[in-house]
Write a structure and sequence with these properties.
Length: 105
């Protein structure tokens, strides 16, 4: 029970320090790139009740649409993987950036 109280206290304390909860969106996406493949999944991971609310806050804060940012980040990661390991196949890269197969790359 003490662990739960500490976690709730810490979570509340963190939220008090953040001006806008969408500020951490890029970090959350980067840390969960394999799990997040759609904006609705990203918005849920961020704690938003609707994709629309997340998208609006994201556009206001970053000046870009979340889908575009997600695609750009996944492409950048794929390029980075290729530059590190030239022998990596399309399927392996797709898996590393959260796509089910090379068709998504």
């Amino acid at each position: 029970m003490l662990g739960l109280k500490t976690e709730l206290h810490n979570r509340g304390h963190m939220e008090e320090n953040r001006v806008n909860p969408v500020e951490d969106a890029i970090i959350v996406l980067s840390e969960n790139i394999i799990e997040i493949d759609r904006v609705v999944e990203w918005s849920q991971k961020m704690g938003y009740e609707t994709e629309r609310a997340f998208s609006k806050d994201f556009r206001v804060h970053f000046g870009k649409r979340p889908k575009r940012v997600m695609i750009s980040l996944k492409i950048a990661m794929a390029v980075q993987l290729l530059s590190i390991n030239h022998e990596m196949g399309c399927y392996e890269i797709a898996q590393a950036i959260g796509k089910k197969d090379e068709q998504g790359v």
